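User: Predict the structure for this protein chain, please.
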Amino acid sequence: MKKLLFTTLFFCGLAFTAQSQSLTYSKVILLTALDTVPQGKVWKVVSYLPSGQWINAGTGTTGSLDILINSVEYKISQYEMAHVGNGGHGEKETVPFPIWLPAGSTVEPSTNCGSLSVIEFTENQ
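Assistant: Here is the predicted structure, written as structure tokens:
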């Protein structure tokens, strides 16, 4: 009975390990222009760097920071620069990170987004 239990748990452990290792780290990418996820790869968009316009927004301005995924615009963050006492601002993240993209997907920094930080993984077959 103990051998049967051990064997069952051993093979269940192997099956779980095989499933959890379906991706292998490949490289880090600082994406500044339109690019496509290569075949056999998966991209994990983990963060962004705003452009200078975002950083230098003046008092009383509003706007958003956007990216394009498969030509569809997504607002990553919205801001409102308002004068509150000695200054102040409000910022709201609207698309949570990370964003996982399968092979063939296109991604591009857009309005007020200077670059995207991406981790590339290779799909194990």
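Strands lie at 23-31, 35-36, 41-50, 62-69, 72-81, 89-93, 99-101, 106-109, 113-123.
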